[in-house]
Design goal:
- By secondary structure, the chain is mainly alpha-helical.
- It has three domains: 122 residues, no CATH class; 118 residues, no CATH class; 83 residues, no CATH class.
- The chain is 66% helix and 0% strand.
- The longest helix has 22 residues.
- It starts with a helix and ends in a 9-residue tail after the last helix.
- About 10% of the residues have low confidence.
Length: 358
Amino acid sequence: MLKSLRAAFAQYALGEGANGGEEIVSPIEDRVNALLDAIEAAEAHLLQLGFDVSCLKGAKGFEKIRAFRDAVNCLCKSDESRRRYEIIARQVFSRFKALVMEPSAFAYSERHDNIEAIFKKLSERRDLSDVTQVLKELRKIINDAIATAGPGEDQRDELRYDLSNINHERLRTEFATRVKRKASVVQDIRDLIEAKLAQMLANNPTRMDYYARYGEIVAEYNREKDRVTVEDTFARLTDFLGGLDEEDRRAAREGLTESELAIYDLLKKDDLKAAELERIKQSSKKLLERLREVVRPLDQWTEKESTRAEVESEVLDEVFRLLPDPPFSESEKEELAAKVFEHLWMQSSSGAFPEQAA
């Protein structure tokens, strides 16, 4: 508000001759021209991607909504295209806002509003944190590719679909032949995966390989933009979603909670026998429960050097006590204790630990 008041006084209240005759703010004409330049830059960027904003002139209702969706689809063809539009659009907004009381800027209101509407559509994020929820979206594309228990069962909120039952070849064919705005669908699945990955990595740091695999898919998609690449990316992303869903169920298969699974993944190593893995599994449960007992009464222990040292020492003692020797050497136990402490510190710093025992 103070900045706006100063600008207003500079423009209207100082009178002629103030400041030695120098303009404190740019003349109205220059600022209107700067607004027009930003609007034209946004429209040119869209045109370069294949969307002509002239189709929005006079458009109403569903016709206008379809046009906005087409624009978003063009912008979703690459991360760079989307980011560039967001930068240009914000420049349009700031310049238009600075001229909100100037009648000469009203001539550009419709073009500004169209750019803003596309920006808002582009920025929308649906809450699809549950990977299985994506199937409700994909049903619009593949209809009968997913088997349900009976008519109307797909509308139950609590229903969980098994991604392993998807006919991926049919799904890819349907996407290639029936979906018009392919880039938008790919972006929707990317948003879903990124939300799910963030949740999974927060629970278990050993899942970084999933993030790396996803990064490879996105990098290839951004390098190539032809139709075959988009369709191949869609198939790879849906396969990747199936893998995430399978990983999501792994804790239950192992007979562990998500928190116990995170400790188990940190402690286990390759080439262990079944009996040794079972012992590590039980040790993970005991270690987690002991860490809860240690951390629960401590107030903001991550911010105090003395309590950090106390917790770190407790982790080391418990790891040495619980892990068998062999197959774990002393140096391996020290390394594993450091990993467990780092995980515990990250969880506690974010407020996720100690959670209530299951």
